[in-house]
Description:
By secondary structure, the chain is of the alpha+beta class. It has helices at about 5, 20, 50-55, 60-75, and strands at about 10-15, 30-35, 40-45, 80-85, 90-95.
Amino acid sequence: VDDDVDDDFSFLGYVYPSPSERLGNASRTELYRCRNCSSFTRFPRYNKALWVTSTKRGRCGEYSMLLYRMLRALGYGGHARWVVDWADHVWAEVWL
Length: 96
């Protein structure tokens, strides 16, 4: 992530997902405001792998969920796990 890009936006908080965002099982939507033009940007936190691949947007939660589901589909289900820590960070692991 480019720190200069992050400085252009202010995190305003979480809002309830819109009906279209809920189709992707968005659990919550982050709301940002551009410091340059004052426009708003919504960042839904999708929980459906198909929506993550379609929108091509995500962070650790979306991409680790996608990797975890891919590992399970490839037959690593008994050796893969999805890890959530207290610092609001998640990742996928697989025992090879």
